[in-house]
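Structure ticket #2291
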Amino acid sequence: MTGLRNRILCIDDSQDNCDLVDFIFSEAGYKVQLANSLQEALELIQTNQYDLCLLDIALPDGIGWDLIPKLRSIDPLLQIIVCSGDVRPETYEKVMEAGAVAFLTKPIDFDLLVATTANCLHTN
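Resolution: structure written out below.
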């Protein structure tokens, strides 16, 4: 892909979180698509190309870290940032071993999220 990399898939079961991510990143010039479940995310990733995925762990139809290898098999270059309120060390280890590039804790520091996103998109 040439030029600015700017397509983000946000997977979170909280519509408020999704709406906030959409607002913040749309204002910054990113194109955001939202999914509220693992199944919805898989459907979107199979028909669209994304540069980055923001992924929650606790989803209504499964655990977010189970989705990481599936996302990677579809698009090995996809950057995945996990955003979760689960701050246990074993959760961090699982998501990083699964292939996430960053782990941010909720409540999200949106300045940190934007900076982490920009770093992931423009250094890969």
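Closing remark: The first helix runs from residue 15 to 27.
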